[in-house]
UniProtKB/TrEMBL annotation:
Lineage of the species this protein comes from: Bacteria, Pseudomonadati, Pseudomonadota, Gammaproteobacteria, Lysobacterales
Entries under InterPro entries matching the protein: AB_hydrolase_fold, PGAP1-ab_dom-like
Pfam short name (any one): PGAP1
Organism for this UniProt entry: Pseudomarimonas salicorniae
UniProt xrefs under SUPFAM superfamilies: alpha/beta-Hydrolases
Protein's UniProt name: GPI inositol-deacylase
Length: 261
């Protein structure tokens, strides 16, 4: 259940939405940061399924998948074309794909979802937690409250679904019993950052980075945080470490939730 503060949050203001064009510079930063990526944390070579955002497809997640591939992960696209929301049969196909990846590699599958893709990743993990190692979301409206995003109208047009339909919220499921990391930005122009706060739980966390919504999937700091989380052994899970140099570029919005920030 969302907190009172999250319920009160409105969609990002128009000027933040207008600033989403800065994502172009984040895509450029992805190329410039490639030498730095070699120093990102590395884990075991388990499979990772990457889900795109609303009205986006696999080309949008190619930089993220290439980054993960260079770290040794078996990063896979979702192979479902443009994401138009939870269309009939989609969830069942994705669950079968996760099962096939787990069987192929003999490992649980990590799910990384951008925006709407993150909501769908959480739902998949909720349905089959035994197949999922961890869930990482990027600017995803985890509260599932349409009033906290500027994309509700686009979702309605693309999916043919009403974002306020209770049946849709039930389809998105609850919070899975696997580690969940929400990477969010206070300057997100599409989804209010409070809507992206991870639920309070033993293995749930939020990491704040300076980014646009449309650039989260290529933002070098977001990618570093993804690598750090994927490198963990879920059995020895610890929250993201904000000490040292990380304190300069990563914020912990959970603390602000506790103190009403």
């Amino acid at each position: 259940m969302p907190t009172a503060a999250e319920m009160e949050a409105a969609a990002p203001p128009w000027w933040l939405l207008a600033l989403e064009g800065r994502a172009v510079f984040e895509w450029g930063a992805w190329w410039l940061s490639k030498p730095w990526f070699q120093h990102a944390p590395r884990g075991n070579a388990h499979p990772v399924l990457v889900l795109p955002g609303l009205i986006a497809g696999d080309p949008s997640t190619w930089p993220l998948r290439r980054f993960l591939g260079e770290l040794g992960y078996h990063a896979r696209p979702w192979e479902e074309g443009i994401n138009r929301g939870p269309q009939p049969g989609l969830q069942e196909r994705l669950l079968r794909r996760i099962e096939a990846l787990a069987d192929e590699h003999g490992e649980q599958v990590s799910l990384v979802g951008w925006s709407l893709g993150g909501l769908m990743a959480r739902a998949l993990a909720w349905h089959r937690p035994e197949l999922v190692r961890t869930v990482i979301t990027l600017g995803s409206p985890l509260s599932a409250l349409p009033g906290q995003t500027n994309a509700a109208r686009v979702f309605r047009l693309a999916s043919g679904l009403d974002p306020e339909d209770p049946d849709l919220r039930r389809l998105l499921g609850g919070d899975p019993q696997v580690p969940l990391t929400s990477i969010l930005s206070r300057t997100d122009g599409v989804v209010h950052w409070r809507a992206s706060l991870a639920p309070q739980g033993e293995r749930c966390e939020s990491i704040e980075v300076p980014a646009s919504h449309l650039g989260l999937g290529v933002n070098p700091l977001a990618l570093y945080a993804i690598a750090d989380r994927l490198a963990q052994d879920p059995a020895l899970w610890q929250p993201f470490e904000h000490s040292g140099w990380r304190r300069l570029v990563f914020r912990n919005p959970q603390l602000e939730r506790l103190f009403g920030g």
